Amino acid sequence: MPQDPVDMVDDLIKMGLYKDSQLRAADRVNAHELRKALFLKQVGRGDPQREKLILALCKQAGGLENAFAAAFGPQAGLFFADSIRNSGTTRREFLRNMAVGAALVTLASCGGNGDPATQDAADAPIDPSALEKTDIQVGFIPITCATPIIMSDPLGFYERYGFNATTVRMPSWGAVRDSAIAGELDAYHMLAPMPIAMTLGLGSPTFGVRLASIQNINGQAITIAERHRGNVNGPEDFRGFIIGVPFPYSMHNLLIRYYLATGGLNPDTDVQIRPVPPPDSIAQLIAGDIDAMLMPDPFNQRAVFEEAGFIYMLTKDLWNGHPCCAFTASDNWIEANPNSFRALNKAILEAAGYARDPGNRAEIAAAISGRAYLNQPQEVVEAVLTGNFEDGLGNTQSVPDRIDFDPHPWQSFAKWISSQLLRWDLQGDGRVSEVITSDTFNSIGEEIFLTDLARELAEELGQNPPAENSREEQLAFDTFDPSDPAAYVQSQIDTFGV
Asked: Is the pTM of this model over 0.70?
């Protein structure tokens, strides 16, 4: 009888005791799914003996990450094939990892029915008994920024966490704000500045909203009407334009103001910035009601598709990694449904992690393009999500991070947004300077952006969120130091005159 476990595994394979289907299971379960199965279903149940066994198995594979990468990663099939073809040492490593993989899959599937080769461990249902509410409604605007919220319906993320969820398409951001205040739905897709504005009473009655996670980074563009082709080469050439943005308290409004000011334009006097619901933006561009727009996708790409305009600049070129939209819920709902909020946030974080993988983008585009969600041509949505697109100027672009899905709600995001709300005083009545001061930048972010909770939930999912809450943000024309937002605002005014 062989004493070396690897030799034993080799013999068991030769004897046919390890079935091909069992060996293939490790190929089919990817690292993300395995982490979910192990830590949510097994370790999360507080069984120290099971945790000890799992850690011992992973140690045999050379560490947790090695076990995941070698046995269950997206390239596992190639790894196994190469291992079989290569030397005895590599084969032994392969057999060791395969043994570990088979054991881990078996553990992850323990307690269920069926062959682990046919049961996807990640699809094991979450016990919903602790949830205060399982029948939920989540509001969204039909844009690609809402991808994690939308895709969680057809791809089963809500169901996995015990929810019977209905996604509710909203007509405008004003409708989202008003619906949240009225308590009509359970959770919402909002623009990242909206929870700050609503909680501080800017543009609406004071109403507490928490930003649970960022839905997307990048993913917007400045699109100019076809009739202005060849006439715009810099921010100074926007003088006299009517520019559409989706909402006053939006990253779109703050970013277009940031850009125009670098060309010496005063956004309040040298141009007109007009709120336009995203679904209406193409018609207004064609009709001449607006000359340009800084809008969420897929409407920039749809403008190219309809030959109504061209993509002048992606917002990632103004600030690579900037936040745009967010997953949110009101203070009232969170207080009444703490367990449901935690589980719902976790479902969204998991969906965002899935969407972040470029290999999943085409599948997601197919799932969310239909009438119930974005109601857009699939080729338009896929162009946005994959970053392979026509810009309307005769160029085929490849920008894989045109949109991305990093859910970490950095405190530096909250501080930059607050600094720009202060800079532009969108209400014009002095209210902003009363509630956003040098002393309140930190408290605003800490109260509204749930950074610590997002990190905790991401770690439970096996994701790798940043350990930090804040970071220096590099924009196209300056660098934002989150330690002194007030000084940043003053430096902008001193440099650009507005």
From this structure: yes
